[in-house]
Amino acid sequence: MRYALILAGLVAGAAPPDIVREAEARRIAVVGKIRPAVVAVFANGGQGGGSGVLIDPAGFALTNFHVVQGVGPTMKCGLADGVLYDAVLVGLDRVGDVALIKLLPKEKDKPFPFVPMGDSDKVQAGDWSIAMGNPFLVATDFTPTVTFGMVSGVHRYQYPAGTLLEYTDCIQIDTSINPGNSGGPLFNDAGELIGINGRGSFEKRGRVNSGVGYAISINQIKNFLGHLYAGIDTDHATLGATVKTTESEDDPTPKILVQAMIEDCDAFRRGLNPDDELVEFAGRPVTSVNQYKNVLGIYPKGWRLPLTYRRDNVKKEILVRLEGLLPKEEAQPKERGPRPERGPRPEPEKRSAEAMKLFKAKTGYANYHFNEQARDTLLTKARSHGDFTGMTGEWVIEGELERKGQKQPIKITIAERPDAENKTTKTVISADLAGVIFAMEPLKAAADPRELRDPPGSGGLLMALYHWHRLQTQAAKGFEGEFTHGGTEPYYPTEGKPGRPALRRIDAGVLRTEHAAVKGKWYYAADGRLLGGEVSQARGEDPCEISFGSLKETGGRKLPHRIDIQFGDQHYGTLLIRTYQLPKS
Questions:
Q1: Of 429 and 418, the one with more pLDDT
Q2: Quick check: is 299 in a domain?
């Protein structure tokens, strides 16, 4: 009724009531505040373009993958200040159609304007939305075009082109977006970034918006940001299972059932079987294939997330490691609108030498330069808790192993021993567990595979401690296969405590390692504390997981005095450390 009276007054030619003028003033103020952070993205030479938005004062900006696809590692970006900046590619999400780029400041260390990220899970149909960008490249001075409209729907699913450009859990809008708007921001009426505009429905010539557009939700992008900042060409997740929606005359409530599974996937090892009913995934209910795809599609490969299933009317929650979606070699996707706008902006130029200094090519990475930066930053933070670099001599760890309600004395030794045959040295790690000796030579040729998993039932505790020792004392020099930043992942301390695992979740930075064909993942808190890690002996096999606790000063450095060990679904035991004997640095 209130809006009807306002509209009647406006039609009759009366002055707009205060509420209309106030709303207009707020909207204009919001646009003025966020406009400086909106980016016009151009290929070098100006033969294509799109939009983006700055999310960080250091110059990091989000755009679409299909905007930067084919552009190369560098590009040009214009802001509303009328200045054209050099920019470099940082990270890619080809499946989710997202890219992270970095603008280079004209003045060293001068901060860029940026916008705050909102919570797209709070967006509802009927909310106002603001889109900004450079449709048809009309803004020759880089001042973005503003359109205003409504959120038409949430949790929409848009099918991919092959396996790329899949829009899951996205936001549908009637706010006008057109070619050139791709990669530009979608804001709520408070000026918070809630999505990145990427697709729209167009009339047959493919140029005019029909009032149906789609934005990638900012909460999905947040899940991938750690990977993008680390320069990774990231991948989305799959459960390793196909599902179907069923209902019956006896029970018309739709259910989602597991149809088939890959037998070496983690979900199968955790106990999920065909014909089990999926109830919740990552804390969200799933009752249809559409809901399932929406939830699954917003997470990266490798994450561990809680899944609840029902079998014989009994519910069970498990933590599942997600598989990867993309094959190693992925064909280029077909264009899906709104596509990058074509046109001459600006004059042709060579690639910026300054931008190319920030680019390093490596298979599996969008830009390995930023991975090295992220890795080194993580290690610097870790060393603030204790620098063990160079302390490669003998380590002796003594304490007790608490297992199955009993405590047994244990002495672990990691040392270099003379190798009589080769007249060199060899690494030996041994454990004296209440008089029972377990010994392992990690680099021994044709070693008994059972030794690599000792003590029995631990999944390879000795191997895990050996890799931890190398990580602490040698860092990159100790891992010839891989030593890279792995983005961010949820980490769940394996303390052997009952209760929902999701409640123990810590979002951690990840370091990936490989030595002697054994892969490792190490998890770090935001302040650089090493939370724990896992080592995997072979694909399709559960890793040995170790969680570090009770950090105490040891020779001026902090070391864990409690190590919890998990293998598969079983808590193997807890190592309660009394003393460390370390070599002098």
A1: 429
A2: yes
Same domain, 186 and 263: no
Whether 508 and 576 share a structural domain: yes
Question: What's residue 344's pLDDT?
Answer: 45
Contact 367, 387 (CB under 8 A): no
Q: Give the residue from 356, 460, 407, 433 showing the smallest Cα distance to 102.
A: 356
Closest CA to 87 of 72, 98, 70, 101: 101
Rounded Cα–Cα distance for residues 413 and 439 (Å): 9
pLDDT the model gives residue 331: 38
Buried b or exposed e, range 427-466, using 16+ CB within 10 angstroms: bbbbbebeeeebebbbeeeeeeeebbbbbeebbbbbbbbb
Contact 320, 308 (CB under 8 A): no
CB neighbour list of residue 375: distance below 8 Å, 6 or more residues apart? 230, 483, 484, 485, 511
- As a whole number of angstroms, the distance between CA 63 and CA 75 comes to 12
Cβ neighbours of 216 (radius 10 Å): 28
Cα–Cα distance for residue pair 496/490, rounded to 1 Å? 17
User: Which of 234, 265, 282 is the endpoint of a domain?
Assistant: 234
Contact (Cβ atoms closer than 8 angstroms) between residue 535 and residue 520: yes
What is the chain's alpha carbon radius of gyration, rounded to the nearest angstrom? 27
CA dist 37 and 114 (Å) reads 5
Predicted TM-score (pTM) of this structure? 0.90
Out of 176, 208, 234, pick the residue that ends a domain: 234
Q: Are residues 513 and 534 in the same domain?
A: yes
**Residue 89: pLDDT over 50:** yes
The answer, yes or no, to whether residue 319 has pLDDT greater than 70, is yes
pLDDT in tens, 133-156: 998 878 778 999 999 999 999 999
Q: What's the pLDDT score for residue 97? A: 96
Q: What is the pLDDT of residue 499?
A: 56
Give the whole-angstrom CA distance, residue 425 versus residue 321: 38
Helix, strand, coil percent values for the chain (each to nearest 5): 20, 40, 40
Q: How many domains does the chain have?
A: 3
pLDDT confidence of residue 246: 87
Is-contact 582 395, C-beta < 8 A?
A: yes
Domain that holds residue 258: 237-324
